[in-house]
């Protein structure tokens, strides 16, 4: 019995070390990847790094979220981008930005023609009443932008 327990501990420890080493290596590779938003702490910086003009609203992007949110910590959010999603016309990425959060980058979603539809649903955090901006990068290099106003009562970005 005692011998089996020792063998189990050795096997578990080896697996644990190999798994941990793999995880650390993978995280190191991900951290080395370039990020076009690295260090962006304002909406203007994010817009400049994305090379967009967030003033216009495209009718091809639909942002779905409530007009009022009591708690900014959990705001339901979804978007849909109208696109044929084939090899010649598809959405490559959709970036979600906030005007007044401490860090404007909320999320980024990647799509391919095989995605079938440019749609995502999630919950976001918002610090105060503000515009939420969705920027869709198309495969031809063009960008589509949409923004929607939301009233937030309680700050969802505060640190405890």
Give short descriptive properties of this protein:
2 domains, alpha+beta, 5-stranded mixed β-sheet, 3-stranded antiparallel β-sheet, 160 residues, Immunoglobulin-like, flat, 8 strands
Q: Indicate the low-confidence ranges by residue numbers.
A: 29-34
Main sheet? 5 strands, mixed
Strand content: 35-45%
User: How do the helices and strands follow one another from N- to C-terminus?
Assistant: HHEEEEEEEE
Order of strands across the main sheet: 2-8-7-4-5
Rounded to an integer in angstroms, the radius of gyration calculated over CA atoms is 21 Å
Q: Helix coverage percent of residues?
A: 10-25%
Average pLDDT figure: 80
Number of domains: 2
What structural class results from the helix and strand content? alpha+beta
Number of helices: 2
Q: What is the first-to-last residue Cα distance?
A: 49 Å
Name of the CATH homologous superfamily of the largest domain = SoxY domain
Principal-axis shape equals flat
Give a verbal description of the structure:
The protein is 24% helix and 36% strand. The chain starts with a helix and ends in a 6-residue tail after the last strand. Mean pLDDT is 80; it is low at 29-34. It contains two helices and eight strands, in the order ααββββββββ. The chain folds into two domains: 1-33; 43-154, SoxY domain (Immunoglobulin-like, Sandwich), CATH 2.60.40.2470. It has 160 residues and is α+β, with helices and mostly antiparallel strands. The chain has helices at 2-32, 43-50, and strands at residues 61-64, 68-71, 75-81, 91-98, 105-110, 118-124, 130-138, 143-154.
